[in-house]
């Protein structure tokens, strides 16, 4: 049984996504490269969502939100750098809410997005970048 629901990011998610990103900013920036400070506004997040929708329409990348059964946004998972010629591949990444980390949600998110990648998206290869201390 899934503890998470996965869905494409949409324009309607902007406020919820902004809240998630602002609440986890320091945590994420302690783990990975910082986002541009302009991202942390409703306009910045909305522009990022538009770029994600455009990427999906052009088969360049796919961004998904992860919600628990009550609908609370607890993470995001994405497939970027989609390559169709020869490889049919993408690079996987994810962010899990700092208070939900260590509960197996990343493992479940990866399982869900890989399932989508190999079925709906027709990909054949998924690569993941990982920090050496997160293996």
- Number of spatially distinct domains: 1
**Strand arrangement across the biggest beta sheet:** 1-2-3-4-5
Please indicate the percent range of residues in DSSP E strands (runs of 2 or more). 15-25%
Q: Sheet with the most strands?
A: 5 strands, mixed
Could you tell me the number of beta strands? Answer: 5
Instruction: Quickly count the helices.
Output: 3
CATH architecture label: 3-Layer(aba) Sandwich
Low-confidence stretches: none
| CATH superfamily heading | Gcn5-related N-acetyltransferase (GNAT)
Instruction: Decide which structural class fits the backbone.
Output: alpha+beta
* Overall outline: globular
**Which value, in Å, is the CA radius of gyration?**
14 Å
Question: Regarding CATH, which class?
Answer: Alpha Beta
Compressed to H and E, one letter per element, the order equals EHHEEEHE
Query: Could you name the CATH topology?
Result: Aminopeptidase
Q: What is the straight-line distance between the termini? A: 25 Å
- Chain-averaged pLDDT: 93
Q: Can you describe what's shown?
A:
- With 135 residues, the chain is of the alpha+beta class.
- It has a single domain, classed as 3-Layer(aba) Sandwich (Aminopeptidase), CATH 3.40.630.
- 36% of the residues lie in helices and 24% in strands.
- Strands 1-2-3-4-5 form a five-stranded mixed β-sheet, sandwiched between helices.
- The two termini are 25 Å apart.
- 20% of the residues are buried.
- The mean pLDDT is 93.
- Belongs to the acetyltransferase family. RimJ subfamily.
- It holds the Pfam family Acetyltransf_3.
- This is N-acetyltransferase domain-containing protein.
- Residues 3-134 form the N-acetyltransferase domain.
